[in-house]
Amino acid sequence: MSDAADDTGRADRATGGSSDAPATDGQANSPATVYLVGSGPGDPELLTVKARRLIEEADVVLHDKLPGPEIIESIPPAKREDVGKRAGGERTSQEYTNERLVELARDGQTVVRLKGGDPFVFGRGGEEAERLAAAGVPFEVVPGVTSPIAAPGVAGIPVTHRDHASSVSFVTGHEDPDKAESAVDWEALAATGGTIVVLMGVGKLPEYTAALREAGMDPETPVALVERGTWQDTRVATGTLDSIVAVRDSAEIEPPAVTVIGEVAATRGDVLEVLRGRGDASATADRTDDTAGAGGADDEATSAGEADDEPDRGGEGS
User: Fold this and answer.
1) pLDDT tens digits for 161-188?
2) Which of 17, 36, 182, 317 could serve as a FRET partner for 284 with CA atoms 20 to 30 Å apart?
3) Is residue 296 part of a domain?
4) Among 79, 82, 118, 200, which one carries the catalytic annotation?
5) Are 148 and 275 in contact (CB under 8 A)?
6) CA-CA distance, 69 to 268, in Å (whole number)?
7) Last residue of one domain, picked from the residues 145, 175, 197
């Protein structure tokens, strides 16, 4: 269902229903291919050559907001369908997206499922691949530049560093609310001594920073929040495990953002002047907590992100 198509299926999105009669797995005609494509962290120049070609060749592109406005606006409106969060907070269910992929492919339409970052990093690409396989729909995974590495990188923060961190852990800050208990072992993460990168973790920041402190992590451990990494309005806020919640509130950091916890977060200070000299967006939109409190330097950017931390449908909901 592209933007130019009939809107009769929109009311069914919350429950995963479809306006069309459900397809059966034994349909005779061979379905078209679905491409699960990573768009990278949002900078159009970080979109892979293959991803760009497939987007141009596709009949339909299913996307949400995470690929970023520049990439989304480069796709002809007639062939793009938004399956992310809509006005008024309405969300497209994952079940609807799964069935829509099958439906379009069985209709003979080549589909790109465009996801922020990499489709298999907290992007529900695995769930979609399983549904396509069960329905007998051919699919291909097209990796993308992943935001938990790219976003800190453009902000001058390496996730590994020979002097500071020999390991890195990627963690979701917003698990499936239907889980009986969290699958994230913050005590084990605190004991690694390496970098922890949290995606979709702006809203839950107080909970997991407290969990890490309770697990014995030093309250003075450096922390950085990178909002909209690689986008034109990238912002960065830095503090410590003890102060970062107050820094977040003072700087008004909002999703999509990644949280970097560990000694590597402090290395940004060593390269910041060079980034500023290049006119880097992340360097000219910086809030730094130099006193381990809620204060800081001038906040030179006031752009707002999405309204909440619910993991979206299209990739790394950073």
Assistant:
1) 999 999 999 999 877 666 667 789 999 9
2) 317
3) no
4) 200
5) no
6) 27
7) 145
Q: Could you tell me if 21 and 102 are in contact, meaning their C-beta atoms sit under 8 angstroms apart?
A: no
37 lies in which domain range? Answer: 10-145
- Per the model's pLDDT, the better-predicted residue between 299 and 36 turns out to be 36
Q: By C-alpha distance, which of 111, 129, 34 is closest to 75?
A: 111
Per the residue annotation, which of 65, 79, 85, 115 is the catalytic one? 85
Residues whose CB falls within 8 Å of the CB of residue 84, separated by 6 or more in sequence, listed in order: 63, 64, 65, 66, 91, 92, 312, 313, 314
Active site (annotated) includes residue 204: no
pTM recorded for the entire structure: 0.79
- Between helix 125-134 and helix 94-106 the angle, nearest 10°, is 40
> CA 123, 185, 209, 150 torsion: positive or negative?
negative
pLDDT tens sequence across 202-254 = 999 999 999 999 999 999 999 999 999 999 899 999 999 999 999 999 999 99
Q: Cβ(65)–Cβ(47) under 8 Å? A: no
Residues 120, 167 share a domain:
no
